[in-house]
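Researcher: I've been going back and forth with a colleague about how Alcohol dehydrogenase GroES domain protein might be arranged in three dimensions. Neither of us has a model we trust, so I'd like an independent prediction. The organism is Cellulomonas flavigena, in case that matters for your notes. Sequence below.
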Amino acid sequence: MRAMVYRGPYKVRVEEKDVPRIEHPNDAVVRVVRAAICGSDLHLYHGMMPDTRVGHTFGHEFVGIVEKVGSSVQNLQVGDRVMVPFNVYCGTCFFCARGLYSNCHNVNPNATAIGGIYGYSHSTGGYDGGQAEYVRVPFADVGPSRIPEWLSDDDAVLMTDALATGYFGAQLADVVEGDTVVVLGAGPVGLFAARSAWLMGAGRVIVVDQLEYRLEKAREFAYAETVNFAEHDDVVVALKKATDGLGADRVIEAVGAEADGNLIQHVTAAKLKLQGGSPVALNWAIDAVRKGGTVSVLGAYGPIFSAVKFGDAMNKGLTLRMNQAPAARQWPRLLEHIQAGYLKPSDVVTHRFELEDIAEAYHVMSSKLDGCIKPLIVPSAA
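Model: Here is an independent structure prediction for Alcohol dehydrogenase GroES domain protein. You can compare it with whatever you and your colleague have in mind.
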């Protein structure tokens, strides 16, 4: 089959790989019909994440058709159109039993630190991802779900991570009626977090970024006020002035390891790899939220330390909440919102690439070219 293959920082290409096979009676093999590139894929592409191995296939956002099932699979049949959450999980361990699918204890040798994720670094289990024609799906009875007939592939693929994660971020922030919510980052996850804040009753939503085309999307798609941090000497001061000097009730950090806005932090994290990620956006979140407020962290960071202003968080009495989203847990409510017409996930899609053009797709997204916000990948066998 044809599959995206990582060859080192900023180097990806499409190569022939063996079609995955059933390795366990609980496995399924899915023929991919849509995949996507996530902002967190760029951390791998840029060489930011430890144990990202040459030869690995990325892609944790994908939907497809079930091609094969193992002998123990009960809930799926060959020919089913399914969406697959980005988390790999067993469904039975201590954490899965509590709905913490992203913290599953049985799918990753590094499980004390992180669960399993398709197409991410080997620190998350080393599972090949969906930027390929086929992908092996372990624990097929507990992860994938049949896609309703009324839901398009383009909408469904965004359920597998970006939309579910954005919605989860607003949940973590404990948004209640009338809250002022600041979202840092106007990528797909930030846009979905902003829309989700409205669904949970926010009275005001402010999105912060530095790229004008993404801020325009935030105004159009998420009905948000916007702040371009590049236009302010201190974006925290600007946000405080915009919130009666107190700060926002909730701040959602949807940027992660490669946050820009502070040269020293960016260089020590993104260039010198001395931190697990640049904490610029996270520190802005801590400073911009009001005392007693909540900071929700969605951005991805590496496993080593980052220079986070923990003392300020403690002294302000903040609640800091964070996790990888348990994507499938959000699906029932999100499907209700989509079917009711409150949300159309594919409205954030700006580009579509054939799998054979995956190197160009990564270049366009990484370099923020051509107004790129969310690119989809279409395998030739789709």
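Researcher: What would you highlight for our discussion?
Model: I'd start with this: The CA atoms of residues 48 and 271 lie 9 Å apart. After that, consider the following. The longest helix spans residues 327-339.
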